[in-house]
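Revision sheet: structure tokens.
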Amino acid sequence: DEPVSMLDVSIRAGILNLLRKLRDNMGLSMLYISHDLSTIKYICDEVIIMYLGRIMEKGPTYEVLSQPVHPYTKALIASVPVSDPDVKREEAEIKGDLPDQIDIPEGCRFAPRCFSANDRCQSEEPELYSIKKGHQAACFLCEPK
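Predicted:
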């Protein structure tokens, strides 16, 4: 899990600020693994969204989180709590239960839970398709026509 998930909020902020400062001042690269999209947005230049060990979407953090194209990325973002009760957002569109992680289904790994899935998604695994320069998604909805 992420390196700061169990820390007090003020200590967490200090650690994240330190990591960002080290990155900026020393030109460091780091691999930051987390389920917390707000810390990813704060600390990372690029993001990779994974589901059951496969890349679903990747690209510049701001672009992926503000303009997601993969249904799983969209559902993740929609599930992040917002502190303002007046803000209305789309609901997270995930159906069903997490598939067996040992006997992973054929095709797209997210297909059994995806509202946009079709027969092709059930049988074929999509490759990473280019959305824009540096932004890719593994979804047949993103396949060039």
